[in-house]
Automatic annotation (TrEMBL):
PANTHER family: DUF3298 DOMAIN-CONTAINING PROTEIN, GLR2918 PROTEIN
Signal peptide: 1-18
Organism: Flavobacterium arundinis
Protein name, as recorded: WG repeat-containing protein
UniProt keywords, alphabetically: Signal
The keyword Oxidoreductase belongs to this UniProt entry's keyword annotation: no
Amino acid sequence: MKTILTSTLFIFTLSAYSQNFIAFQKESGPESNWVKVYNEGLTGYLDETGEEIIPPVYEEIGRFGECCSNMALVRKNGLYGLVDTYGNVIVEAQYEMIGRQDEYKPGWILVKREGLYGFIDCSGEEIVKPVYTEIQMEGNTLKVN
């Protein structure tokens, strides 16, 4: 009985330690070498030399490359925009929602402003002004209302 209890305890301890190693895996992307900083509840980034890349003015900063390559979705005052890996604001935080590039048409990103939908590209240009209450994709055709 003592042997079974000791073996069980050993296996449990070993599995608990192995789970801790998984939790410390390093993420990829430019922000993996940066230091996330906070000031009064807002988030920013410093690079490995301590230079401020993105000032701590955002409620949230997404992962780089998820929306556009070399860009991250940011939230400020409840609205979304885009910044690049140099900290440049590409799209001011003015949208209620910013989708992902290429979901509807190559190079286009769905956005929502004041309850209406439109499209921008990764340079921040409005391709289709947000004037539609609904946008759907049917095959290769965009259907708008």
